[in-house]
Amino acid sequence: MLIFFMAISFYDYESKSIEALNKEKMHSLSSKISSKIITSYMNNEPLIVNEVKGFEVTLYDENKNVIKGKKLKGILFKEGFHKSGEFEYLVDLSPQMHHGVRYLILKSIKKDDERLNLIKNILLISFSSIFIIVVVGYFLSKMFLKPIQNERVKLDKFIKDSTHELNTPITAILMSVERLKKQNIDEKILQRVEISSKRVQKIYADLTYLLLEDNSKEIKSINLKEALLGELALYEDLALKKSITIIKELEDIYISMDESSVQRLFSNLLSNAIKYNKKSGYIKIVLNNEIFSITNSGKTINKASQEKVFQRYYRQNKHEGGFGIGLDIVKRVSQRYNLEIELSSNEQETEIKLHLNSSTSKMI
Predict the structure, then answer these.
(1) pLDDT of residue 364
(2) How many domains does the chain have?
(3) Given phi > 0 = left and psi -120 to 50 = alpha, else beta, which region is 125?
(4) The whole model's pTM is what?
(5) Of 250, 284, 154, 259, nearest to 205 (Cα)?
(6) Which three-class secondary structure state does DSSP give residue 94?
């Protein structure tokens, strides 16, 4: 923008300079021609008008009839310098009727040649300047951003390595809980440890899916009902802790997806339905050839929030746990497998619906 405004300003200045020079040149030429007309008349010599490079010279009598030269169109017979849309011209009355000449008119033949050259030069300089700035800016940005990029790569590697290392302690905790169940230990303590472990396991699984996602995962025919029941089993204790009733209307539906995506899809929808539900509430799950829907009796999600809940790191309720990545994963899986998402919420319940008929599915 700065170069653009500088170019416009420079063109305006130079254009005025060109006009001033042309005006001065035409006055000088006109003065010489007028002097020759008067001199030839005084010496009883015939009227001779020589050609002037870049200009047309026309002499008119007081009735505006042509004495010498080519008749010009669009001329104002008024003394002074004039401009039209096509040319510039000068009307000079200095011959003072010598040889009958009342009007000496000097007209430019190619008014725009100098301006066109000026425009070409300005454009050439402007584009050259922009090119140089872009090239210099590119290398400077690479130079300045390289340390930031290196730190980002290190941070990304650290997160991925840390996420990977979480798997070992999580597995150890869950195995220990299973062993402790066989001993005479307070069931409530074990239940709390197990629920907390499963929450950590879910966070680990979500982070792994986001950070270590492999698009080359095997796509196969998966029974959604079996996968859903498998995930439900992992959340029974969480639902029981809040006294949540789960209503199931499930059919055997097969769909072509990778197993990890199916697990993450159901896991996050079930987790949210329990997490944001009210105590002694309910969850209704419907699975058929057309849709998969999960409805919970939690708080209303207002219209403004409904547009944001699928954004990564957005959390509707700051008091509940989580990082705000669950529904982002649901959205990613849905987009990858062409599943249309529909969210509705009122004072009684909130429903998330996936339209399976937009993907490849079949009922057994």
Answers:
(1) 35
(2) 2
(3) alpha
(4) 0.50
(5) 259
(6) coil
φ/ψ of residue 100, rounded to 5: 75, 10
Number of H helices, E strands in the chain: 7, 13
Q: Report which of 228, 261, 260 is spatially closest to residue 246, judged by C-alpha positions.
A: 228
Distance CA 332, CA 25 (A): 74
Let me know if residue 72 belongs to a domain: yes
Asked which of 111, 140, 166 is the last residue of a domain, the reply is 111
For residue range 245-262, list pLDDT tens digits in order: 999 999 999 999 888 888
**Continuous H helices in 43-71:** none
User: Which pLDDT tens digit goes with each residue over 34-93?
Assistant: 888 888 888 888 888 888 887 888 999 989 898 988 888 878 888 888 877 667 888 999
Chain mean position to CA 283: 40
pLDDT the model gives residue 154: 66
CA-closest candidate to residue 92, choices 141, 58, 42: 58
User: What does DSSP say about strands 220-223 and 245-250: parallel, antiparallel, or unpaired?
Assistant: unpaired
Q: Rounded to whole angstroms, how far apart are CA atoms 215 and 27?
A: 79
Model pLDDT for residues 114-145, shown as the tens digit of each residue: 667 777 887 888 788 888 888 888 888 777 77
Which of the listed residues 52, 87, 111 is the one where a domain comes to its end? 111
How many CB atoms are closer than 10 A to CB 99? 18
The token pair at 114 is 């100098």
The pair of three-digit structure tokens given for residue 154, joined into one six-digit string: 């290190």
pLDDT of 363 reads: 39
pLDDT over threshold 70, residue 168: no
pLDDT digits (tens, 9 = 90+) for 256-281: 988 888 888 998 899 889 888 888 99
Scored b (16 or more CB within 10 A) or e, 7-46 reads: beeebeebeeebbeebeebbeebbeebbebbbebbeeeee
Domain CATH code at residue 350: 3.30.565.10
Can you read off the two tokens belonging to residue 64? 């505006």
